[in-house]
Amino acid sequence: MSQPPSYPAPPPAPSADTYGGQPENGLGLAAMIIGIASFFVLAPLSSTGAVILGILGLRKVRAGRATNRGQALTGVICGAVSLVLGLVVIIYVVAVMSHGVNTAP
Which tens digit of pLDDT belongs to each residue from 47-84? Predict the structure, then answer.
C-alpha cells in the first residue's frame, strides 16, 4: 500500500495586529451624527461637540488609525455651519428683544 500524499502545513491565520487592527472610526461617526442633529437640537452646544469630535476624528485619520475621513469632515462642516447659524439666531433674538424693551408706547 502506498502512503497518502503529504501536504504542506497551512499558513497561520492572520491576527488583528497583522493588518494594523480594526480602524477606530467612532469619533468620525459620532461627529457626523451630532453635526447633522445639531441643525435640530441645541445648536450651539451640540455643534461645538460635533466640531471637536470631527477634528479629533480627522487627527485619527491622518495618523492612520481611522478610515472615515468623509464622516469626520461632514461632522466638522455641519457642526460649523450649525454653530454659525445658531449664533446668528441668538444675536437676532437678543436684538429683537432689546429693541422691544427700549421702545416705550
Answer: 999 999 999 999 999 999 999 999 999 999 999 999 99
SS3 43: helix
- The structure's pTM equals 0.73
Distance between CA atoms of residues 33 and 71, nearest Å: 9
Angstrom CA distances, 40 to 2, 78, 89, stand at 77, 12, 13
DSSP-based three-state secondary structure for 2? coil
Angle, helices 69-102/43-63, rounded to nearest 10 degrees: 160
Handedness of CA 92, 97, 98, 99 (dihedral sign): positive
Burial classification of residue 66, based on how many CB atoms lie within 10 Å of its CB (0-12 exposed, 13-18 middle, 19 or more buried):
buried
User: Given 3-state DSSP classes, what are the helix, strand and coil percentages for the chain, each rounded to the nearest 5?
Assistant: 65, 0, 35
Taking only the tens place, the pLDDT of each residue in 3-42 is: 777 888 887 765 545 556 788 999 999 999 999 999 998 8
